[in-house]
Amino acid sequence: MKQKSILFALCLLTFCTCKEGPKEAVQKESVVSAPPVELEPRSTFEDLDGNPIELSDYTGKKVLLNFWATWCRPCIEEMPALLKAEAALQNDNYVFLLASDQSMEKIKAFKEKKDFDFNYVKFNGAMADFAINALPATFIYNEAGKEILRIDGATDWDTPEIINKLKAIQ
């Protein structure tokens, strides 16, 4: 019995201490990837016909950029006052843009359903780019394209105070 134990221990020791034989050179498969597809830079905004728009296209005009959504009740509730403000400022070199990040189809359907004749645009960026956490959010730019004013939340756009503030933008 003692011999069997010794023989077993030697076999075990041999198997446990054996070095591996020479390793064959292992070639890593090289992964050939297709060249990156270069996407055309996407404009920040598009009109409802799909034409690209940038805020810089409006240099020389004052811009009221209102971010809204079809599901946003305060956004829709402030639209009649926005229309009145747009009419009141028609001789003050203003462009009103109502931007939504929703699909073009939803924006078009909203425009057809509602009686708000705005210059609706599709926003292709991220709301975080404008630090928007809630809608509506409105940005006012002067004729040089500099952001002058930001208003978060629904606003009574047609009040004399707001109209005068917008008229005074330089």
What does this structure look like?
By secondary structure, the protein is an alpha/beta fold. It has a single domain (45-167), classed as Glutaredoxin (3-Layer(aba) Sandwich). It is 29% helix and 19% strand. The chain has five helices and seven strands, in the order H-E-E-E-H-H-E-H-E-E-E-H. It has helices spanning 2-17, 73-77, 79-88, 104-113, 160-167, and strands at residues 45-47, 52-53, 62-67, 94-100, 120-123, 137-141, 147-152. The chain has a seven-stranded mixed sheet with strand order 2-1-5-4-3-6-7, covered by helices on one side. The longest helix has 16 residues, at 2-17.
CATH superfamily assignment? Answer: Glutaredoxin
Mean pLDDT: 84
Outline, from the CA principal axes? globular
What is the overall number of helices?
5
Order of helices and strands: HEEEHHEHEEEH
CATH class group: Alpha Beta
List keywords for this structure.
170 residues, alpha/beta, globular, 19% strand, 29% helix, 5 helices, Glutaredoxin, seven-stranded mixed sheet
Summarize the structure.
The protein is 29% helix and 19% strand. The chain has 5 helices and 7 strands, in the order H-E-E-E-H-H-E-H-E-E-E-H. Strands 2-1-5-4-3-6-7 form a 7-stranded mixed sheet, covered by helices on one side.
